[in-house]
């Protein structure tokens, strides 16, 4: 069974990542989770440790849970890294190669396939800076799941909705089976 690292960033769809973590674990995979500081405004580490059965990580420097260099340890034997939902802010930091928190540092240290599932307001997603950052990551081999079109947290309808957790999970299983993105 695979070792998966799920990164959750601070978007309105962060609660859906709890279902994703649960689906991945129920399929027999080991799922470690990292929440950004902003993500903890929307969801709690306890939710993720409860569904994953593993500690949930938030801090680059904290010794809780007890892992000495978490961004390295969590990526040492990784089969797949997922960031869902991925904010515009995370996509920008990843494209720039910043490592200013645990999630971006883990992303930089990761040598496994990475799947990013963006979610944001339509105008944000269509912003040339966001599109350019997503293109940069794509050109480096990072896979994208969505976003899809639909009803958004801000009340509008359009591109920027997080792909359904079950659909993201299917793409993960496909990648783990050696395939590409569907
Ligand atoms: C209520 C609320 C909802 C937000 N939803 C999103 C979102 O869906 N997508 C996004 O890119 N940013 C969203 N943001 C902005 C991010 O929280 C902000 O850019 C933050 O710095 C992201 O940090 P992170 O990428 O480190 O998690 C939202 C902010 C608020 C206050």
What does this structure look like?
The strands form two sheets. Strands 3-2-1-4-5-6 form a six-stranded parallel sheet, with helices on both faces. Strands 7-8 form a two-stranded antiparallel ribbon. The mean pLDDT is 94. A hairpin with a 5-residue loop joins strand 7 (148-151) and strand 8. The two termini are 21 Å apart. The chain has one domain (3-176): Rossmann fold. 38% of the residues lie in helices and 20% in strands. It has eight helices and eight strands, in the order βαβαβαβααβααβββα. The radius of gyration is 15 Å and the shape is globular. By secondary structure, the chain is an alpha/beta fold. Flavin mononucleotide binds next to helix 4.
Per CATH, the class reads Alpha Beta
Can you tell me the number of structural domains?
Answer: 1
Please state the second-level CATH architecture: 3-Layer(aba) Sandwich
Using the coordinates shown, work out and report the CATH topology. Answer: Rossmann fold
In percent terms, what proportion of residues is strand?
15-25%
Give the biggest sheet. 6 strands, parallel
Please, what is the average pLDDT? 94
Shape: globular
Helix segment tally: 8
Ligands bound to this protein structure: flavin mononucleotide
Q: What's the N-to-C terminus distance? A: 21 Å
CATH superfamily: Flavin prenyltransferase-like
Residue windows where pLDDT falls under 50 for at least 5 positions: none
Indicate the structural class. alpha/beta
Read across the widest sheet, the strand sequence of neighbours is: 3-2-1-4-5-6
Order of H and E elements? EHEHEHEHHEHHEEEH
- Relative helix content: 25-40%
């Amino acid at each position: 069974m695979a070792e998966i690292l799920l990164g959750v960033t601070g978007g309105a769809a962060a609660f859906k990542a709890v279902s994703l973590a649960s689906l991945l674990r129920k399929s027999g995979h080991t799922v470690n989770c990292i929440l950004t500081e902003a993500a903890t405004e929307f969801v709690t580490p306890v939710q993720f440790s409860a569904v994953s059965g593993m500690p949930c990580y938030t801090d680059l420097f904290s010794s809780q849970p007890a892992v000495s260099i978490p961004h390295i340890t969590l990526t040492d034997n990784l089969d797949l890294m997922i960031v869902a939902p991925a904010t515009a802010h995370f996509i920008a930091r990843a494209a720039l190669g910043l490592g200013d928190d645990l999630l971006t540092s883990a992303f930089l240290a990761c040598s496994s396939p990475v799947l990013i599932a963006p979610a944001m307001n339509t105008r944000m997603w269509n912003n040339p800076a966001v599109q350019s950052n997503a293109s940069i990551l794509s050109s480096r081999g990072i896979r994208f799941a969505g976003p899809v079109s639909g009803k958004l947290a801000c009340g509008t309808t359009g591109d920027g909705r997080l792909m359904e957790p079950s659909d993201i999970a299917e793409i993960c299983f496909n990648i783990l089976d050696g395939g590409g993105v569907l």
